[in-house]
Write a structure and sequence with these properties.
This protein is of the alpha+beta class. It is built from five helices and nine strands. The strands form two sheets. It has a seven-stranded antiparallel sheet with strand order 2-3-4-8-7-6-5. Strands 1-9 form a two-stranded antiparallel sheet. A hairpin with a 7-residue loop joins strand 2 and strand 3. Helix 2 packs across helix 3. It is globular. The N and C termini lie far apart (39 Å). The relative contact order is 0.15.
Length: 164
């Protein structure tokens, strides 16, 4: 009987440790879970966030843009996880839910690649702000990292750890 209980406990622990990054956010931040559960299931399924963060967050918020504005059952344009550490560092992780999302791609854009070969557009790279966007499986994602102590490599490390 002890062996069966031990095996069952091991299976439960393994299942819990294999949760995705979004599920972990829901578990650790009740406000994220509450906001997420208001959104349609198809929107929730597209949401993604990184496993590795450039700093230890003190708070995480989930926001969204919809038409009509503020209607979680309306046409969701994008969802965004916002991580903050109370020291001025902020990480925005955006999932563009609307397939008709458009971006200003006029002129030369600097690009790089993720480890899996996905092309990434570098939208901003200043001393205080780093921002990138890319497409994966017909969904656009964006990340913006604010804080003077970070480099583009910190943002790319997070992007490479995205849990889609």
């Amino acid at each position: 009987m002890k062996k069966i209980l031990s095996l069952l406990l091991l299976i439960i622990l393994a299942a819990c440790s294999d949760q995705g990054a979004v599920e972990k956010l829901k578990m650790n931040y009740p406000n994220v879970k509450k906001e997420m559960e208001r959104l349609p299931k198809d929107v929730q399924q597209k949401m993604a966030t990184p496993e590795k963060l450039p700093f230890q967050p003190k708070d995480v918020q989930l926001t969204y843009a919809a038409e009509p504005a503020g209607d979680p059952k309306g046409d969701i344009l994008h969802t965004e996880f916002i991580y903050g550490n109370e020291k001025g560092s902020v990480l925005h992780v955006t999932t563009f839910q609307n397939k008709n999302a458009t971006f200003n791609d006029e002129g030369e854009k600097k690009t790089t690649k993720l480890q899996d070969g996905t092309e990434v557009v570098i939208e901003a790279e200043s001393s205080d702000v780093k921002a990138i966007r890319w497409s994966k499986d017909d969904v656009y994602y964006g990340m913006m990292l604010m804080g003077s102590e970070f480099k583009m490599e910190d943002l790319l490390k997070s992007a490479n750890s995205m849990d889609y």
